[in-house]
Amino acid sequence: MATAPEEAPDLTVAAEAANAQLPPELVAQTFGEYARAWVGRLRGGEAGVLPVVIGLAAIMVVFQVISPNHVFLSAGNLVNLFQQSAVFMVLAMGETFALLLGEIDLSVGFVGACGAVIGVQLVQPVTTNWPWWAAILGALAFCAAVGAIQGTIIARLGIPSFIVTLAGYLIFNGVMLILLLLGPFSGYPNLGAQSPNVQVLFNLMSGTIDPTVSWFAMAAIVVGLGGIMWFGDRRRRKSGLVAPPVSLTLIKIGMIAAAGIVVVAISDINRANFGVLAGVPWVVLIVLAVLAAWMNGAELFPTSRINIFALIWSRPTPGA
Fold first, then answer.
1. What is the DSSP string of 156-221?
2. For residue range 240-296, what is the model confidence (pLDDT) as tens digits?
3. pTM of the entire structure?
4. Using CA atoms, how far apart are residues 37 and 18, in angstroms rounded to an integer?
5. 121 vs 249: CA distance, rounded Å
6. Alpha-carbon gap, residue 38 to 148, rounded angstroms
7. Fewer Cβ atoms within 10 A, N terminus or C terminus of the chain?
8. Contact status, residue 243 vs residue 233, Cβ threshold 8 Å
9. How many Å apart are CA 293 and CA 275, to the nearest integer?
10. How far apart are CA 20 and CA 199, in angstroms?
11. Which of 12, 53, 55 is nearest to 34 (CA)?
């Protein structure tokens, strides 16, 4: 005796959304449904990034308590953390491409360091004296070439990425030391010269934006990111695709604005013992620009959905 097919659950119902294997922001129709679905998933053991947020909060509290004179949350230390963590943020974005493909790149730290050394070496006025923009392109070309070579070895020869990139880690550790010794004397390269090209690279890493300009830049970034999120979700709704509730989109935009205000307010505090040192570091804008391109490139440029990284790293289909 034939039985009637079971009806698919309505994923817009909060109770069903909590049990569905989908993020609640994709199936909930209101913020209330989203909140109930999120709590349901949390009770079911799917904590998401909540443990990371709690861990970071605990670390900040502990470090603030144990740091001398309780300076961990001071403006000077926080801005230093912004600058020092920028390189790790960019490397983490690149590493994500490999992880999404089920691979790993252990060499990314030293390959990136080699690219940085090459860029600084190329702008040295007593040697190559390249323009700063050409030096950056040369550094990026080196890193791209190394990634293409390692990816080709993994994809075409079938050697596990762990082995290939571990070898790359050891190789480029030595290459970096060799590159550091280039130049007319020990200690090359340096960013202390008065050459305009050298100063540009120095300011990109350690320079700051004028405090007043920082507020206008923050407002432009919030408006830009908010517009991308708002119109992107609106376009998805009009196309009949899943999209988060309007209220959730507004909350996300508000959180971005609040974070921007906090960062600019902290950075605009004078951090110098003598003179004035204030303003948002340039590296913050660079990281945000890379993040925006990384997250929204496929939406802004549909042809980029065919990812060059996927073409390099993907393995040939057996029997093809």
1. HH---HHHHHHHHHHHHHHHHHHHHT-SSSTT---S-S--HHHHHHHHHHH-B--HHHHHHHHHHH
2. 777 778 888 899 899 999 999 999 999 999 988 888 889 999 999 999 888 878 776
3. 0.75
4. 4
5. 45
6. 40
7. N
8. yes
9. 37
10. 54
11. 12
